[in-house]
Structure formats: structure tokens, C-alpha cells
User: Fold this.
Amino acid sequence: MKNVNYSEEVTATIVAAYAANPNMETVKDLAVTFDKTTKSIIGKLSREGVYQKESYTTKTGAKPVTKIELVTQLADYLQIDVEAVAGLEKSPKAALQKVVDVLTIN
Assistant:
């Protein structure tokens, strides 16, 4: 017989609490309430299909953009194939961002 760490009632309570307020603070509160680790709670929420990983943001709060995305934006703006500007992704990110910003403003 399989050892059950979470009863159906506890699982329902955890899922309902997290669904009402899906953040890391809720996970920590649930871990304390049910005497589990935060990793255990996250694992259970993941298995139940409700856990939402917190998305990474930059220091300014914006979603990060990769150099590949910047090169793709540049190629789209110039209406050329991305392969035509192959190698630009090795440029400094700040330089690529500046070029994209200047081109999209004009």
C-alpha cells in the first residue's frame, strides 16, 4: 500500500487556499499550517495542476528580453531574414536594445 502524505481533505484545502491567493507567501503559510516543507507544498500543488511558477522580472519590473528576441525584432523591422543578421546575437545586449529602440521610435 502506498504511503499517503496528503489526505483528500488536506489536498482540497491546500488547492483552495492557493487558488484564492496564488503566491509564495500562501505556500509558506500552508507549509507552516500543515507542518510540511515549502518544496512539498509546491510539489503537491504542481501534481494537482494549480501551481504557478513566479515569472522572472528585471530590476525595473519588466519582462526580460533575450538577445535573440532583439535580433529578431531588428530583422523584422528591417524586413530582412534573421539569417541575414546572423551573429548579431553575440553583440552586447545594451547595444542591440539601443538599436531596436532607435529604429522603432522613428
Notes: The CA atoms of residues 7 and 13 lie 10 Å apart. Helices lie at 8-20, 24-33, 38-47, 67-78, 93-105. The chain has a mean pLDDT of 88.
